[in-house]
């Protein structure tokens, strides 16, 4: 029996630097705009799918970022309102670009580390800050 992994669609983000924090930032090139961001989680793995629309007669680009996830409890001294939270550290080790070519990090210097503070999560929504 196949188990369904939790998947999410980005609904709101507070700023462009916040979305660049977790993604490729390729939507910042001229004539490109970020159309959708999808996330799939499972078994200490993270897959982020970016859909970038290039204006004009160009195809839509889909980038896939893959990485490992480590979780740790946030100390209450790091939160302003004494809320409990979880620090999620994602280490991106590969990217599949719009042409379907997989680019591996290879060495440790090329791994991108991203920290997210998770404040609420269930099977339908994740609330996080960078």
What does this structure look like?
- With 130 residues, the chain is mainly beta.
- It has one helix at residues 16-22, and strands at 7-9, 32-42, 45-54, 61-73, 86-96, 102-104, 112-121, 126-129.
- It is globular, with a radius of gyration of 16 Å.
Keywords:
mainly beta; single chain; eight-stranded antiparallel beta sheet; 130 residues; globular
Shape: globular
Low-confidence stretches: none
Please give the number of β-strands. 8
Q: How large, in whole angstroms, is the Cα Rg?
A: 16 Å
* Strand percentage: over 45%
Largest sheet data: 8 strands, antiparallel
**Secondary structural class:** mainly beta
End-to-end span in angstroms?
36 Å
Mean pLDDT: 85
Along the chain, the helix and strand elements come as EHEEEEEEE
Helix content: under 10%
How many DSSP helices?
A: 1
Could you give the topology of this structure?
Elements: E1 7-9, H1 16-22, E2 32-42, E3 45-54, E4 61-73, E5 86-96, E6 102-104, E7 112-121, E8 126-129
Antiparallel strand pairs: 1-2, 2-3, 3-4, 4-5, 5-6, 5-7, 7-8
Report a brief summary of the structure.
It contains one helix and eight strands. The chain has one helix at residues 16-22; strands spanning 7-9, 32-42, 45-54, 61-73, 86-96, 102-104, 112-121, 126-129.
